[in-house]
Amino acid sequence: MQLSCSLSNSHSSSVVRAFEHEYDDEYEDDFRRNAMKTLSTPCVYILDGSDGEKRCADRLDRMMRHIQAESVCRVTCEELDRIAAERKGQFGEPGRPHVIFTTFRWRSAEEERELQKRYPHLTGSLRQAWGAYALFMGTGSTETPLTGAICRPFWDTSPMLGCYHACSYCGNMRHGCLFVILNAEQLVEQHEKILKCAPWQRLWHTGGGTDIFCFEPEHGFTQLLLDSAARLDRYVLFYTSSDNVDFILDMKHRDRAIIEWTFSPESLTRFERKCPSLSLRLKAMQKCKAAGCTVRCQFAPLVPLAGWKEQYREAIRELLTAVEPDFIAIHMLRCPSPFSAAVRDWFGAEALAPEYLAMLDALDGDGQRRPAFPGNHIFPYEARLKLNRFVIEEIRKLNSDVPVVLCRETPEMWEELKDNLGVSPDRCGCGTPPRPRQLQNQSERNPSRHGGTGF
């Protein structure tokens, strides 16, 4: 199928400019100082009509300044559906996704069913092409009946689906696409309607679909969310691995930002293809904390690579020497079954500590798919207890106060480790507390029913 492309790969500049607009000198200064990450891609697809509004066209133009594209094509949903069929649902590759600019539409379930029939090859995350949007909601209760683990209720929204970092263990790029919603203002308007119906939900997430910091300030979603948070007296939790933070340091309402970085030993960063080094992440944390943002950290995923004890001990030392986070979360590695095959595919046969690889081999047995342990964990309880306990004890050697959160762990694990966590499972951080720990006064701090301090 032949598509008319607005650009070919015969261009002299290393950065493709799809559209030309005039920018004043003040914007150009900001643009040079704080810019999104440069993205390389075989193709950019612009869905017809997605840039019809001026603010959408301006957003597209700002982002295209930093996208190195071999071709840029305008397509209809019908054309993209045929392309998806030809490619069997697979577009780009990790690190070089195809970029698809589209728009958000809030439709009824019946309308979405009709569109799915019309575009049968745009399924799963590819539904974003025709404006489907999955507003992700957490489990909604302290202990979920589906997983048997503790996960606080939360909402997550993102103006993109797909990630810059291309980590080997992440599924956000399974189709090789990066979807970018251009009408972000409409997305925030819908988000506000939902928040007004849920006054108890004081914290909103973004980061489940992408690391938005990699695409700021050109996209502009961060400022939209912070403005919304200030209007509604809420907070926004940004999940990130990025060091691209200069844009937020003097942003309005940045005190409404809670920024949670993934943090891993240097040995794991080689599987995080385009993530910054740990030292750069630490500098980013320090900058944001100094600017008045709340800083959090999560060991996500915690992977028992060969020599993991020494590696995590050193990573914890580096972290707590550089910054005191609002809390630290431990997020165990999870993957699809058969587990040993997935781990070998992600990290290689020699990377995982032998005892843990042997454990997965024994559990997989004949290589058939099997259910995960409660919490969708791949390691059994005793193995996770050993990993959790080690990390917590190393943290406590350096800091006796910072709360430690167990992400999607069982009530039994919380009970076993309660004396060293400093927080109860009903206040573990995703949907609660309503405000960052350091902003709460003494009257808001509740004693933990598990012997911790609460926060």
Fold blueprint:
Layout: E1 5-7, H1 25-33, E2 39-41, E3 44-47, H2 54-64, E4 67-69, E5 72-75, H3 77-86, E6 98-102, H4 109-118, E7 136-137, E8 141-143, E9 150-151, E10 155-156, E11 160-161, E12 177-181, H5 184-196, E13 203-206, H6 221-232, E14 235-240, E15 257-262, H7 266-269, H8 278-290, E16 294-302, H9 308-322, E17 328-332, H10 339-347, H11 354-364, H12 381-398, E18 404-406, H13 411-417
Parallel strand pairs: 2-4, 3-5, 3-6, 6-12, 13-14, 14-15, 15-16, 16-17, 17-18
Antiparallel strand pairs: 1-5, 7-10, 8-9, 11-12
Helix pairs in contact: 5-6, 8-9, 9-12
Summarize this entry quickly.
By secondary structure, the protein is an alpha/beta fold. The protein is built from 13 helices and 18 strands. β16, α9 (308-322) and β17 (328-332) form a beta-alpha-beta unit.
What would you note in describing this structure?
By secondary structure, the protein is an alpha/beta fold. The protein folds into two domains: 5-130, no CATH class; 136-158 and 184-444, pyruvate-formate lyase- activating enzyme. The protein has helices spanning 25-33, 54-64, 77-86, 109-118, 184-196, 221-232, 266-269, 278-290, 308-322, 339-347, 354-364, 381-398, 411-417, and strands at 5-7, 39-41, 44-47, 67-69, 72-75, 98-102, 136-137, 141-143, 150-151, 155-156, 160-161, 177-181, 203-206, 235-240, 257-262, 294-302, 328-332, 404-406. The strands form five sheets. A six-stranded mixed sheet has the order 1-5-3-6-12-11. A six-stranded parallel sheet has the order 13-14-15-16-17-18. Strands 2-4 form a two-stranded parallel sheet. Strand 13 (203-206), helix 6 (221-232) and strand 14 form a beta-alpha-beta unit. Helix 5 (184-196) packs parallel to helix 6 (221-232), helix 8 packs parallel to helix 9 (308-322) and helix 9 packs parallel to helix 12. The N and C termini lie far apart (58 Å). Mean pLDDT is 82; it is low at 1-32, 136-143 and 441-455.
